[in-house]
Structures are given as C-alpha cells and as structure tokens.
Amino acid sequence: MFTRRxxxxxxxxxxxxxxxxxxxxxxxxxxxxxxxxxxAGGGWDQTARTMEQVLRGANLVGSTQVTNVGGAGGTVGxxxxxxxxxxxxxxxxxxxxxxxxxxxxxxxxxxLSNVTPIARLTAEAEVIVVPKESPLKSMKDLAAALKANVAxxxxxxxxxxxxxxxxxxxxxxxxxxxxxNISYVAYAxxxxxxxxxxxxxxxxxxxGLGEFIEQIKAGNLRAxxxxxxxxxxxxxxxxxxxxGIDVEFFNWRGVFAPPGVSAQQKKEMTDLVTAMAxxxxxxxxxxxxxxxxxxxxxDAFETLIKKETDRITVTLKKIxxx
Length: 322
Known about the structure:
Blueprint: H1 4-11, E1 29-36, H2 43-57, E2 61-68, H3 77-84, E3 91-96, H4 97-106, E4 116-131, H5 139-148, E5 154-157, H6 163-174, E6 183-186, H7 190-198, E7 204-208, H8 209-217, E8 221-226, E9 250-257, H9 263-278, H10 280-289, E10 292-297, H11 298-318
Parallel strand pairs: 1-2, 1-3, 5-6, 5-7
Antiparallel strand pairs: 3-9, 4-7, 4-8, 4-9, 4-10
C-alpha cells in the first residue's frame, strides 16, 4: 500500500519546491474560483477554504469564491467542472485520491485525465473514531467485533470506493474478516458523517485526521487508531501497526484546472499555487492541521495520477469494490 516512505521516494527532490517566490510571481491574480466537488465541511472543502485564506493573506489573489457540488466522491461535480468551467483560467478544482477511487468504483465516463493537473499539495493519515459512549476502546476491540460479525460493525465515512472505504476494508481484511461484507455508510461530507457518529447511529467513523480532530479534542469522539507509519507529534493516537493491524495508508489532495486552458494559463496557475505552497502562511496551516507537505507539480504529478489510478484499480478489485 501507499505509505509515507513510498510517497517520499516518489517525490524525491520535489520536497524542494521550484525556485519561485512571491518576488517571481509578479502579478496578483485578480480572481480565483474554487470548485469543491463535495459538501461543505469535508477535507476538500477545508483545503479550499485554507488555500483561500492563505492566498488572500499573502496578497496573491484579489477576490475568491468557493462553489460546492457534493455527491459520490466528486463524481457528481466532476462533469460540471469539465463542461461548465472549460477553458476558464481562474478556476481550480480540489480533488485527490478519493475521487480516483470513486471514479473506478462508480464506473463513471469521466476521470482526471479530462482535467488539467496543477499540483499535489497535502497528504493525511486516516483515523478511526467511535462515539464517546462506545464500548470499543482500541483497535483490538474493533478487530474482535469485526471477526465476530463483520456486517454488524457499521462505518461512517466518505464516498463509496474512496480512501475511507478502502482503509476500512483493508482493516477488515487485516484482522481476518471478509472485506466485501463490511457495512459501510457513505456520506457526502465530513459534517453529516460526524452527525451520525455524535448521534450514535453507527459503530465507528473513518476519515482524515483533520475532519475529526476538533471533536476528538472536545471529547465528543474517541480516536482508537491512525493509519500513519508512526505517531503524529502532538496527537496521542496509536497507529494501527502498534496495535497489531498491518495497515498503513495516506490520503492526498491536490488541485486541477479545467480542461481547455492554455499553456500560459496553466503556467500562471502553477506559479500561483507554488508561491502559496512556499509561503509561511501555508506552512503554518500544514502544521496546525497535521497535513503532510507532499508538493508535486508538472509532469511528475501527471505521472503520479496515472500510477495511482492503476494502483487503486487493483486494490478495489482485490477487496470487491470494483
């Protein structure tokens, strides 16, 4: 599976961003519109709102606007972005590994080859949480419940076939339960999934750490495990592997311009996003949100998308989701 080590090996020298600072970015972009193919409150929406804040704070953009079109891991919004935003050089769609899985699982006629890759920005570990009243105290307890009756353990997460779904299935498989029989409830965004958990409507929830961290800190949800290769500093959550479950997985998010933009528009957007990624404001947000910096642009990012599509296709077929 895709681990932090693999991610760093693939990026190689890309951890050192192109030599482009705010001084090289001569002109402010007058307007930037974000297209988020998910409901408000989820990871993609958080990414868009954080980018909006940082770009405006660094005076890299003038006005900004965020449009949310949720559903089916982004596959409801993707056709709209392709058809209605075509050739518009002031638009950016937030997407990532979740959409690749949803496209494959839903067998949609559109995919990320139909848009213009700009940059991968962040990666995030997956965390499993339970309501504070839950009898499950650890991944060992969850493993026992899954082995006893995998279908009775209900999961709240993002889109079917997405990173949350894949991680849940991998956990079931790792503990000896049938991953094709997991009871997974897909939600359009982080907010409705949290509501289901807080209302004790599901056994557990799974998502990126950033989506649950505030509820974890408030004591409303209890984190029982995280998919990172090692513990995240400042976050007292033991990894799956520490608890005897051999699963390690990271989600990544990036940005895409519409199809049909010119080479100059693509360069301007790449320069803008690169300048943002180098800014102190963005680096502060990465630390604050426990997002891993995995910046990658250009041909390397396009190659990564192709590799990820192949990898996720194999994984989904293996666990019965494609």
